[in-house]
């Protein structure tokens, strides 16, 4: 997959592509249906396939002081989109110029001049342009005039529930990572670099790999059964673990930190880029009366996490 920044027009070899448009936060099952339709349509036309997305997320632009909400950072989104088999990820910087661009100018400048689309695929509720004035009807009308095609994808359901990034965020805020995974089609992951902490875990027999959430959404604070992966010899090695996410009230800490105890591992992970999959919520975070009480509870949490992970189902995202 080729990453294309739309500060200049796309390369000639990628013009005429069938392009799915969206933010694709989480690259969830609904996104994959949209992207799969674009990919298959492109193959039938003998044309390139791609997505058009925005960075930063428009929500970050309009509400920069709001709490973090991302399901995926940019790196993880690139990885997820690459797995869909498309040829191009076109990224438009979302700044004041784009925010103030009219719907008609968006079609003319971004879709036609910069991308040179042959066909686009959008969701049923797609809105674009200044104050979201553009809609599917306007897009269809412009497509006839400009000579490109439009396909509209209806909502994708899990049971009676529409799959959306908002519903996935709600599940994580409620401490339901398995429900989030059902909607995503894969386990929710946090990607980050392991940093050096206060090393208190080593003193009680439970050393941890510490990762800052950065711009990721903060799910319900507490203890989780997790899997953690890091690169070794050109591939990602995965191990089971138990993690605490929160502010560590026993030690009166205030910053939010993800602390992962990796089962049966004694190596050094400092500085490595790691991926942490949230598998199951075990209990809320709470304050303990001293290190012995904390140590006993971590041992119980670790035993529970091992049992959860021993019977872990396999998730397949599919299309």
From TrEMBL:
Instruction: From the UniProt record, list the reaction(s) this protein catalyses.
Output: FMN + ATP + H(+) = FAD + diphosphate; riboflavin + ATP = FMN + ADP + H(+)
EC numbers for this chain: 2.7.1.26, 2.7.7.2
Task: Identify the pathway.
Answer: Cofactor biosynthesis; FMN biosynthesis; FMN from riboflavin (ATP route): step 1/1; Cofactor biosynthesis; FAD biosynthesis; FAD from FMN: step 1/1
The UniProt record lists the keyword Methyltransferase: no
Q: Keywords, A to Z?
A: ATP-binding, FAD, Flavoprotein, FMN, Kinase, Multifunctional enzyme, Nucleotide-binding, Nucleotidyltransferase, Transferase
Report any Pfam family annotated for this entry.
FAD_syn
Domain Riboflavin kinase as annotated: residue spans: 183-310
Q: Name one GO molecular function term.
A: riboflavin kinase activity
CDD domains from the entry?
Answer: FAD_synthetase_N
Q: Which GO terms describe its biological process?
A: FAD biosynthetic process; FMN biosynthetic process; riboflavin biosynthetic process
Question: Per its UniProt record, what NCBIfam families does this chain match?
Answer: PRK05627.1-2 (NF004159), PRK05627.1-3 (NF004160), PRK05627.1-5 (NF004162), ribF (TIGR00083)
Q: Which family does it belong to?
A: Belongs to the ribF family.
Q: What does this protein do?
A: Catalyzes the phosphorylation of riboflavin to FMN followed by the adenylation of FMN to FAD.
The protein here is known as: Riboflavin biosynthesis protein
